[in-house]
Amino acid sequence: MGQYGIGQPVRRKEDVRLLTGKGSYTDDVNFDGQVWAAFVRSPQAHAKILSIDTSAAKAAPGVVAVFTGSDMKADGVGTLITDVEFKDLAGKDMFRPKRDFMTIDRVRFVGEMVAVVLAETQAQAKAGAELVMVDYDALPAVGSTAFAAASNSPVIWEEHGSNVGVHWENRPEAEIEAHMAKAKTRVVVDIVNNRVVPNPMEPRCAVAKWDNDELTIYAPTQGGRRIQQGLAKIVMNLPADKVRVISADVGGGFGIRGKLYPELGVVSWATRKIGRPVKWRGDRSETFVSDYHGRDQINHAELGLDANGRVVALKVWTIVNCGAYFAENGPRLPINGGGRIIPGVYDIENFYFSVKPVLSNTVPTDTYRGAGRPEANFLMERLMDAAADATGLARDEIRRRNVIRQDQMPYRTQMGMLIDSGDFIGNMDMAMKAADWAGFEARRAESAKRGKLRGIGLSNFVEPSGGRPTEEMRIQVTPEGKAVVYAGTHSHGQGHETVWAQLIQTFLGIPFENVSLIQGDTKIMPKEAAGTFGSRSSWMGGVGLQRSAKRIVEKGTKIAANLMQAEPEKVSFDAGVFSAGTSSVTLAEVAKASYELKNLPDGVEPGLDESYFLKRDPEEFNYPNGTHVIEVEVDPDLGKIEMLNYIAVDDCGKVLNPFIVHGQVYGGVAQGIGQAMTEMTVYDDEGQLVTGSFMDYGMPRAHHLSMIDALFNEVPCKTNDLGVKGAGEAGACGAPGAFVSAVCDALKGFGIRHIDMPLTPDRVWTAIQKAKAAKAA
Amino acid sequence: MENFAYHTPASVADAAKLLETHEDAKLMSGGMTLLPTLKQRLAAPSDLIDLAKVPDIKGVCRDGDELVIGAMTTHAEVHENALVRELIPGLASLAGQIGDPAVRHRGTIGGSCANADPAADYPAGTVGLGATFVTNKRKIAADDFFVGLFETALEPSEIIVGVRFPIPVWSHYQKLRHPASGYAVVGVFVAQTKAGVRVAVTGAGPSAFRVSEMEAALSKDFSAKAIENIKVDAADLNNDIHASADYRAHVVTVLAKRAVAARG
Ligand SMILES: Cc1cc2nc3c(=O)[nH]c(=O)nc-3n(C[C@H](O)[C@H](O)[C@H](O)COP(=O)(O)OP(=O)(O)OC[C@H]3O[C@@H](n4cnc5c(N)ncnc54)[C@H](O)[C@@H]3O)c2cc1C
After folding, report:
1. Residue A1 above 60 pLDDT?
2. What average pLDDT does this structure show over A252-280?
3. Which of A31, A67, A245, B252 has CA 20 to 30 A from A465's CA?
4. Do A762 and B243 touch (CB under 8 A)?
């Protein structure tokens, strides 16, 4: 396939541009006459707004205007999107609280927007924001997940009378209890899946401009089509084509940047209102209190096993803290996002699942790298470790007895998903071999001599990928024979400039360096563009390109036949050259000819420009999977953990570019280790975010990690033409389970079988002290 | 950030004069702590007096039995300086454990000590070595310098010019890094000085303190065993979401033992 073909470790094209400061980020955009926006954010977690006095702010130097939620409402602006509907078993609908773009009479979390100040400079806007006087009448707040679900907690939405949005169940519990009752062994786990603050490197930013009765807004998104539609409909009351969303370079998405955030609505509405461009540059403190958070579940689960260590039934109860409002996907994550895959790589026929999405006085939670699947896999792996303890089987043996075998594929899960392929036993074998699992006890003994406790852990995972079911990709071959890809997908770190060029070179023979990418501009990207999230791009975008390329070849064949005076059926295409008998023309020549009417056969339109609208069948999900093994050493005197070794075995189907997939694995692992080791989000009883900066919120750093050995157990996906599976979220799914398993293995001498994430030194040490005290008692 | 007037005096005397004549003036050294507070609008001084252009308060030299480090010397310079490495390797090691490379190349010993962050590393080093702060007005013993949480003995218009460290026989620093900030959850500096053993702790309390019980025990028997049962009182220590007071009390002993054990 040559140096740039599919499967080659091609270096990322975009890196030179991005690493030499030539990227084009939202904050690089400025317009003459622009004003700066600063938001007045609530310092209170829960309060009635008695009054908002903007007079001092309006009189402050440089201030152009001050607006509140009432001003927007008066202009007919609607409420934010909650794109989720669930019913309980009795058919009762989920409660869906409405969220204004700026809240009007009640604040429900610290950081919620109350007003916006527009001024000539950013400093003046911020100074003005400090002068907006809001009179709050404080109400009791709910900061924690468990408390939100408790019967004695304050209720945040009186009209609903409870903080529980819905009690969703997949089926009546009694049906599964009947199977559970037959189990020889029953194990129970209670775990907290900690809330994380996603923190992309680029803080949010937006520049909006009203011009010629059209809105243009620049913002870091993951593909702007849905945001365009939301802004047009809810905020601007315009047809969608009068709203243009541009996201050129974006410094990280992770799921949370694909949303219609209220700030986007405010600046869009405000630029039309005042007739000047409006710019907002959020800072890191605003990231903490206004970007959606991730995870935040409490899981209680029970697994029943027979005498052979085979699972007979599984029951899971999940509470998910969705924050003050249900964000676009909030309650979807435990249910459709992750819950449907909870049995994971295991063949479990009897499964009961209950989910309570709860509201609290915290930042809303939404999709974050894995979006429900890391939570689901973590839970399943903690159960497997507990089952190993209870049955006396080794941790890998209990898993081997229960994984879905290759001869069971395609495998229909209890929740109705069809897993097409995967070599789950092979993943474990490969990972354990690479990690020298067999030689571990000798290493443990060596560590013990140095006073350190060594542990090893593994975790399996599978994570349905694909996201929304449609995508559109377009290829234009220019008269010069170069290719321009107009992508519906959106690269914000994934390296599409590189991978799409590899695909084009492979399919059309156009040299890698002659392929360019246009993305992230709703005016020029394909109509049905969806964007990049849920590990979908290689499948939806890659196959979309493959099919567009096929159309280019089909049309090119007709033109080439005409040029060569040959029958179209006799023309073949290979590596950029059309041939018929002894004559041949290059794709570049055909492209040039395609723009000249005289060369076109009857009925053929000019140009060589084709797109493909891809619609996925519900059965055509894909199932990235793998086994990750971690080795750690615990310093028992300090409770400090050192990661020594990380083996990641991933099956992401056909690998288009191993260099880029490794990057995805490393990044996902770092975020998974961050959740497991350092990232602690704490709200106090008053609903204040205690960990609102990097002084208190532990982002994972290079020194927290060991080297990561990323290996592939490539099993091509059967349900798409390229054989690809997702790769973006695997690391975040595999890391937490393997990490906690390894630490608990190190601490097994104390009888410690679980510690809730993140495993900070203080927590590990405290667990050891408790275990020692319990033993002594 | 609000507007401010920016001054670059060429001498300590000029800096002091500016400080005295402007009501809301602030000294700036590396700016690593000061600038973020301005950006977050937590402070809005009328004047910033940058010490960067003051020539003679930067660098390291030996003066008899003392090592003198200028207030404007960065952590990176202290970490890499050959004299410091030779004469007080424990201090060079401490400086190398502060923050990250970017911070170490901006942050200064004067700024760090003046700021008196309860979790900063230098307070342990200065107290642990029995250093003396030299200001434009007087000399202050490190033991008297750190008064409380972000509080020093400095008067409003007093400027740290340098720090004088008596060259010890031996010293060593042990630090448990904060999982988020990288500052010291607990840091323990142990030194054998000509005036006796000193054990100084940072991170654990509102400001750096000495553990006299350990010092006494180590004076008799300089071994980890000698202090294994000595615990500081958790009641006086910081207690937060990252580390309980009990944990900190325990870590003080663990790190002190490890520091002593490093003597070999
Ligand atoms: C990301 C990050 C990580 C850090 N990690 C650590 C760490 O691990 N350990 C640690 O110990 N520190 C750490 N620090 C602090 C850093 O090392 C600096 O020491 C500290 O920020 C102050 O030094 P500065 O020179 O930047 O002082 P500045 O920020 O310039 O000044 C700080 C204060 O001291 C006053 N001041 C400055 N110079 C003088 C003087 N000569 N006389 C009197 N007053 C003066 C100023 O007016 C101001 O109030 C970290 C900082 C950052 C930003």
Report:
1. no
2. 97
3. A245
4. yes
Domain segments of chain A as ranges: 2-21+467-615, 31-139+199-288, 294-465+621-776
Identity of the residue numbered A452:
K
How far is it, in rounded angstroms, from Cα B251 to Cα A766? 12
Question: Could you tell me the residue range of the domain that residue B235 belongs to?
Answer: 170-261
Q: Residue A391 has which token pair?
A: 């049955």
CATH fold of A294-465+621-776: Aldehyde Oxidoreductase; domain 4 (3.30.365)
Tell whether B175 is covered by a domain. yes
The verdict on whether omega for the bond into residue A9 sits within 30 degrees of 0, i.e. cis, is no
Domain spanning A31-139+199-288: CATH 2.60.40.10: no
In a domain, B32, yes or no: no
CB B222 within 8 A of CB B255: no
Q: What is the mean pLDDT of chain A?
A: 96
Give the integer Cα–Cα distance in Å for A768 and A750.
Answer: 7
- A72-118 tens-digit pLDDT: 999 999 999 999 999 999 999 999 999 999 999 999 999 999 999 99
Beta carbons within 8 Å of B249's beta carbon, 6+ residues apart: B204, B231, B232, B233, B234, B237
Per CB-CB distance under 8 Å, the chain B contacts of A638 are 176, 251, 254
Alpha helices in A193-321 (DSSP H): 225-230, 262-274, 284-290
What contacts B5, CB < 8 A, 6 or more positions away?
Answer: B22, B46, B47, B48
- Domain covering A2-21+467-615 in this structure, CATH number: 3.30.365.10
Quote ipTM for the complex.
0.95
Nearest to A638 among B180, B244, B251 (CB): B251
Residue B4 identity (one-letter amino acid): F
A573 strand-pairing partners: A578
Does ligand 1 come within 6 angstroms of the Cβ of B159?
yes
Residue B2 at interface with chain A, using a CB cutoff of 8 Å: yes
Better-scored residue on pLDDT, A64 or B23: A64
- The CATH number for B184's domain is 3.30.390.50
Specify the residue with its C-alpha closest to ligand 1, atom 12.
Answer: B120
Are A367 and A255 in contact by the 8 Å Cβ rule? The answer is: yes
pLDDT band at A399 (very low <50, low <70, confident <90, very high): very high
Query: B121 CB under 6 A from ligand 1?
Result: yes
Alpha-carbon gap, residue A375 to A736, rounded angstroms: 9
- The whole-angstrom separation of Cα A362 and Cα B240 is 21
Which of A36, A638, A764, A768 should one mutate to test binding to chain B, selecting the residue with the greatest count of B CBs within 10 A? A638
DSSP annotation of A33 reads: T
Does B48 reside within a domain?
Answer: no
Query: B201 pLDDT exceeds 70?
Result: yes
